[in-house]
């Protein structure tokens, strides 16, 4: 039984590190006659949280029938005929090597059989560089070789160490993921865009996306950098300092993520001064100091993945990227995929 009649549902499923925050903040809200939901938009977090919950669900305990009804109730509250949900976690969590991609995509098919998917990909070596820098912002002190599982001139592809941000580089095969999406939803219901197109031809990128949803942008989105990665200096400072932070990666650290915040928070009802200090210290963490203070004074770009590793990653995925282009005609020619 179709619980969601007369609605066109579009799912922007990632990848992460492909300008997702920029799209959610500055692009999707400008789509004409499209109701957009993402965790970045306070007005409709409940619908976005429904999909984020799926992204982190245990397959053995996911109550599919109950979730169908719950989703239908959320959708019925929306008047628009077209609904766009943006949740990059639906592609999978890269710290888990996207291992849950199969379960999430199969469940999406059960929940919304007629959904249309928007997928933004990025050349593997560039994506890995950006993903690694993101782990530094999340207080990891994993080295680039540890993250890539690289040792002795080779990438380890058999196993990953649990509890650490690592990637099986061989499994960053976009053809495998997208072929699976096409089998579930139909190739005609997929819009696959290369991240590189956004910088080379932003207007074409936006027009293609809007055309897929049969709409237009009410105003031209202003392209800007969001969530800029750490610079050369702050990257290496973070790599060193993160090992001392008390966080999800280093529970045995000695420095709280937000020094003094809990002290002032516990006393915030005493007077206005404690409330102000509680609010101020809620933002004062290592990320803020590195990104908003030091990087604004001096910003020098850094690449952690060497030319030798980049060449090896390129060679590993060249043929699958070429096959992906041949099958889906994404427009990857000249963008560094093969």
What attributes characterize this protein structure?
two-stranded antiparallel sheet, 9 strands, 14 helices, 10% strand, globular, 5-stranded parallel beta sheet, alpha/beta, 338 residues, Rossmann fold
Helix content: 40-55%
> What is the number of E strands?
9
Segments where pLDDT lies below 50 for 5+ residues? none
> Strand order within the widest sheet?
2-3-1-4-7
- Global morphology: globular
CATH homolog superfamily of the largest domain = P-loop containing nucleotide triphosphate hydrolases
CATH architecture of the largest domain: 3-Layer(aba) Sandwich
Rg, rounded, reads 21 Å
Textual characterization of the structure:
Helix 4 (101-111) runs parallel beside helix 7, helix 7 (174-185) runs parallel beside helix 14 and helix 10 runs antiparallel to helix 13 (286-297). The strands form three sheets. The protein has a five-stranded parallel sheet, sandwiched between helices. Strands 5-6 form a two-stranded antiparallel ribbon. A hairpin with a 2-residue loop joins strand 5 and strand 6. The protein has two domains: 8-226 and 308-328, P-loop containing nucleotide triphosphate hydrolases (Rossmann fold), CATH 3.40.50; 232-297, no CATH class. The protein is an alpha/beta fold and 338 residues long. It has helices spanning 20-27, 45-55, 64-76, 101-111, 124-137, 144-148, 174-185, 195-200, 202-212, 232-241, 261-265, 272-281, 286-297, 307-328; strands at residues 8-12, 34-37, 82-86, 116-121, 150-151, 154-155, 190-194, 245-246, 255-256. It contains 14 helices and nine strands.
């Amino acid at each position: 039984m179709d619980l969601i009649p007369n609605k066109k549902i579009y799912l922007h499923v990632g990848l992460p590190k492909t300008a997702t925050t920029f799209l959610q903040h500055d692009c999707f809200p400008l789509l004409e006659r499209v109701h957009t939901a993402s965790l970045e938009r306070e007005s409709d977090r409940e619908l976005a949280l429904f999909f984020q919950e799926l992204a982190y669900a245990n397959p053995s305990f996911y109550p599919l029938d109950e979730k169908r009804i719950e989703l239908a109730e959320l959708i019925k509250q929306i008047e628009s005929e077209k609904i766009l949900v943006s949740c990059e976690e639906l592609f999978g969590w890269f710290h888990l090597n996207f291992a849950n991609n199969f379960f999430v995509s199969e469940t999406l098919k059960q929940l919304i059989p007629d959904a249309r998917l928007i997928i933004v990909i990025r050349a593997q070596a560039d994506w890995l560089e950006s993903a690694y820098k993101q782990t530094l912002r999340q207080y990891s002190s994993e080295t680039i070789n540890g993250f890539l599982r690289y040792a002795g001139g080779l990438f380890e592809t058999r196993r990953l160490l649990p509890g650490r941000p690592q990637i099986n580089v061989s499994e960053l095969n976009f053809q495998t993921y997208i072929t699976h999406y096409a089998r579930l939803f139909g190739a005609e219901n997929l819009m696959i865009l290369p991240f590189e197109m956004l910088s080379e031809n932003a207007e074409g990128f936006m027009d293609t996306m809007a055309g897929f949803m049969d709409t237009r942008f009410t105003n031209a989105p202003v392209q800007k950098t969001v969530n800029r990665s750490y610079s050369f200096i702050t990257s290496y400072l973070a790599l060193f300092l993160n090992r001392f932070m008390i966080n999800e990666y280093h529970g045995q650290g000695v420095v709280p993520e937000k020094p003094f915040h809990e002290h002032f928070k516990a006393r915030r009802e005493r007077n206005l001064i404690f409330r102000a200090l509680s609010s101020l210290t809620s933002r004062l963490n290592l990320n803020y100091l590195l990104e908003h203070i030091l990087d604004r004074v001096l910003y020098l770009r850094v690449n952690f993945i060497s030319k030798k590793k980049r060449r090896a990653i390129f060679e590993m995925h060249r043929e699958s990227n070429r096959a992906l282009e041949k099958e889906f005609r994404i427009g990857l020619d000249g963008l560094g995929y093969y």
